[in-house]
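Fill-in record for D-xylose 1-dehydrogenase.
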Amino acid sequence: MAVDYKLEGHVAVITGSTSGIGQALASALAEQGVNVVLNGLGDPAKIEADRQALQARTNAAVRYHPADMTRPEEIKDLIAYAVREFGRLDILVNNAGIQHVAAVDEFPEEKWDALIAVILTSTFHASRAAIPIMKAQGRGRIINIASAHGLVASPFKAPYVAAKFGVVGFTKGLAVELARTGITANAICPGYVKTPLIEAQIVDQAKTRGIPEDRVMEDVILAAQPTKKFVEYEHLAGMLLYLASDVGASATGAALSVDGGWTAT
């Protein structure tokens, strides 16, 4: 029996939603009748084709805003655009992210600045702009896509880990502040998901190490996940819909692991 999350007509902004996890989450919301504002980088023609296809497939209204997540004024305009288009904002999904892997003493300073800006600081700016709108409505959902790396560390990813730990901490602080406003704030902490970025890494690692791709997946990429399986997009979408709906109204300030057992070990 299909679950009715009663989200039809709601409005969502999803940062970093032109590919990968963000695109899958945008699709899941649109399938529930949520009008969505996409955001992210990529080929403009492909972004527009994907936007039109999602709108046609779901009958939800789908828009796109090209805000750069390193520019606070553009982030503010992204939130304002959703209200201009739809008259309200019910769900904010802070998903935008980038990655760079290197030892701290070799980590380029500009990469640190970019990681913190895109992952952590943009979450602050988008939330800051959305909260007054949600307060006026008496209801809102802020859902931050953190990571297993927001709960545990891995080598050569210290800036990414710092940014994701920051997202989890920000989420908790936000939830406490907003506890009596009708707005919840939660973080979803995925393990490895088979995104286009990870698929490319599998191919590269197989060539570099001279081993089959299935060995790379199990022994390298998924070494930390006891299930030895990638987290599927629909598993993250299920958590998102729970948190976005009234079913998840009592969940706030949580860092919810969807990681194949990674952080249980």
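KEY FINDING: The CA atoms of residues 141 and 244 lie 6 Å apart.
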